[in-house]
Amino acid sequence: MEDKRIRITETVLRDAHQSLAATRMKTEEMIPILEKMDQVGYYSIECWGGATFDASLRFLNEDPWERLRTFRRRMPSTKLQMLLRGQNLLGYRHYADDVVQYFVQRSVANGIDILRIFDAFNDLRNVETAAAAAKKEGAEVQLAMAYTTGEAYTIDYWKSLAADMESIGADSICIKDMAGLLTPAAAGRLIEELSSSVSVPIQLHSHCTSGVAPITYVKGAEAGCRILDTAISPFSMGTSQPATEVIAEVFRGTEFDTGLDRNLLGEIGDYFRPIRDRYIREGLIDPKMLTVDVKTLQWQVPGGMLSNLMSQLKELNAEDRFYDVLAEIPRVRKDLGEPPLVTPSCQIIGTQAVLNVMTKQRYKVMTQEAKAVLHGDYGRVAKPFDPVVQKLAIGEDRPITCRPADLLEPELPSLREKIASYAVQEEDVLTYALFPKEATEFFKYRDARENKIDPEIYDLKNKAYPA
Ligand code: CO
Predict the structure, then answer these.
(1) Which residues of 278-315 are buried (b: 16+ CB within 10 A; e: fewer)?
(2) How many of the other CB atoms lie within 10 Å of CB of 334?
(3) How confident is the model at residue 298 (pLDDT cuts 50, 70, 90)?
(4) Distance from the CA of 50 to the center of ligand 1, in angstroms?
(5) Ligand 1: distance of its center to the CA of 123 in Å?
(6) Dihedral of CA 314/320/322/327: which sign?
(7) Percent of the chain with pLDDT over 90
(8) Chain segment 188-198, per-residue pLDDT in tens
């Protein structure tokens, strides 16, 4: 008989606090519970990548690599999973292949078992290098499709994307519904179609922003999804994932039983609850994030994007134009080839829509980023660009049609030279490659903390040399 048991990826150490608490959970707040989490029997624990790397350096004065080694030491029995933005790694631009390959190699060497890799435009040319590198290191490669709705996104689109993912070596495929747009009916149909067209397992990753995700998970399981992403209850729901304990109870005693121990999950929930409560008291978690935002479904845009737009319009004293901007978003998105609304496209499209409405003339003013999209700098989109808008953006310039990273020279040799005086470990060159400014500040801080700089001349608390 077919094994229908659902396996669980626990996200509390990555996406859950990234979605609810601006990625501010410290390693020291995680350490006391790691050994217990390792006993649960999760399919995997998502604990690294995404925004955690940036946030560790920038806000927490932590070495992200040391955090990963801590996870590996204290959770030897569970697969550790990370989120990687394809050729963007964990940064905000395309990196040369040598940086991508070395980053993946060091991630696996320091403890990562599963790399979930995606591209914001679902352009698989932007995930190929990372996927091949992960394969070479013997890691599990999970390719993720950025889920969205729109004219271009038919069942056939997703089926052909999934088939391409399988053909470039995906060990599993994740439907990454970052905005919580996937309804139960849509999930049922999509997963049924995908599981009949590819042979690798399908994992579902959603957010409760619009409120439908727990029901979508049930439908997904019934349709053949094998792995679900959940967060332990204190860091679940709202803009985060459905609750681990709830999903375990929903399936208990059925053919989908997760087999997870209720008491053990209870103890883990008890550990994180006071941390969540303190985050609320300190203002790190806005209680609004924990509620349902149905506008997401109504307008088919991510919740975070709506609140960003509102604050942009407030600054311009133009809150009354909110609905005009909302109506302009799908038009701009179409002109730009209808990409998924995820970082960075949601910021680019949102800002351009505001400009189009406020200047009362579409594309009178165009941002550099919108021009770059229309120049092909980010890669291929699902639909062709609007030719008139593209012409406005790039004039007589010829757009890029190759893989954007093909235009990049190797970067590692010059990066190594630049940080020679700071590097204490191989991984430092990668930290510097991704975030040069933040990395340099952190390296100085680290030297001072380890007494390599006289405290009289370096102010450890303020991370600065006095003027
Ligand atoms: Co997510």
Answers:
(1) ebeeeebbbeebbebbeebbebbbbbbbbebbeebbee
(2) 16
(3) confident
(4) 9
(5) 19
(6) negative
(7) 86
(8) 999 999 999 99
